[in-house]
Specification:
This protein has two domains: about 90 residues, Winged helix-like DNA-binding domain superfamily/Winged helix DNA-binding domain (Arc Repressor Mutant, subunit A); about 220 residues, 3-Layer(aba) Sandwich (D-Maltodextrin-Binding Protein, domain 2). Helices cover about 45% and strands about 20% of the residues. Helix 5 links the parallel strand 3 and strand 4. Helix 1 packs across helix 2 and helix 1 crosses helix 3. It is of the alpha/beta class. It is rod-shaped and about 100 Å long.
């Protein structure tokens, strides 16, 4: 009995066998495989010759598996499935393992969204090397993307931004007041807000520009007494009673229970998003990260509560 030589069995032979068994004739199998009918016949004949058995019963009604073919077809399917897995893994390796991802973000997004997300992303995508760049302001993020220093930028999105944009939701601006402030819960009016010295970001900062425009549109001058560069300093100064401030809700995740948080008289929001250069072929790691990021952006339930009653309790406890 001739010895079967496994190395002579080709994947194309097995694929032809599986396809003919599914189509039940050589003509349809050839169309599905996009090869000639004679090529299909040759592949089946070569496989039968190598195995030394008949796998298909040919006839005018088409082709059907012989008893031997019925026993072999599950293994042929397994081999082809494993080969497909090998190809998929190789493709993933080439596109992911060799790829690197560099992401820039403004401090608030960097600290409260990007850093926690990256920790989880590395666990699920260890083959992607991620580098992070913290930028002081929105304009710095845009410059980093425009100069191709990073692949993606996470920042506040304006309506006229000239980048490809992926929406990440909105972030509400809120007023934060010192512990001693006497205000109605959850909302503040213009007259009350105007009584406080305003602590703001340094002039020229995109948040400063946004707040100045907001106050001007409302007919209230923005009287900035203190200018600082970062949110922790703003929160600390408000807690110490040095003034009031308007900051994003996201930035309040670490606000002291002693400060009071109120909605503004007129709603003010900023759009959050990921930006990249237009008309650029982005590598797969970019889209893998974006998909992961969209699922990980904090929901409203995870952001600071506006209920000042618990904050009042904290203030009373601090005075004891």
């Amino acid at each position: 009995m001739p010895r079967v030589r496994p190395n002579r069995i080709k994947p194309s032979h097995l694929r032809a066998l599986v396809t003919v068994s599914e189509c039940e004739n050589f003509g349809d199998a050839a169309l599905k495989l996009e090869i000639s009918q004679s090529a299909v016949s040759h592949a089946i004949a070569s496989l039968e010759e190598e195995l030394g058995i008949i796998l298909l019963q040919r006839g005018r009604q088409g082709a059907s598996l012989t008893p031997a073919g019925q026993r072999i077809i599950p293994y042929a399917n397994q081999v082809l499935h494993l080969l497909d897995n090998i190809v998929d893994e190789a493709r993933l390796h080439k596109t992911m393992q060799a790829g690197q991802l560099k992401v820039a973000a403004v401090p608030t997004i960097f600290k409260y969204i990007l850093a926690p997300v990256i920790v989880k992303f590395r666990d699920t995508h260890p083959q992607i090397m991620v580098s992070l760049v913290e930028c002081y302001d929105t304009w710095d993020v845009e410059r980093a993307v425009r100069d191709r220093q990073v692949d993606l930028g996470l920042t506040h999105i304006s309506d006229d931004i000239d980048f490809e944009v992926w929406d990440l939701g909105t972030d509400e601006y809120l007023a934060i007041l010192p512990p001693s402030a006497e205000v109605q819960p959850s909302q503040i009016d213009w007259e009350t807000l105007a009584q406080f010295p305003i602590i703001s970001y340094v002039r020229g900062n995109s948040c400063y520009v946004r707040l100045k425009s907001y106050f001007q549109e409302s007919g209230i001058p923005l009287k900035v007494v203190h200018e600082v560069r970062d949110n922790p300093t703003v929160l600390s100064m408000v807690e110490q009673g040095l003034g009031a401030a308007v900051v994003s809700r996201l930035a309040l995740k670490e606000a002291s229970e002693r400060v009071q948080i109120c909605r503004l008289p007129k709603p003010l929001e900023r759009k959050l998003g990921a930006i990249a250069l237009r008309d650029k072929l982005h590598p797969p790691p970019v889209f893998a990260f974006l998909d992961f990021l969209k699922q990980s952006v904090p929901q409203a339930s995870e952001l600071p509560d506006l209920d000042n009653s618990t904050r009042a309790e904290a203030r009373e406890a601090a005075q004891l």
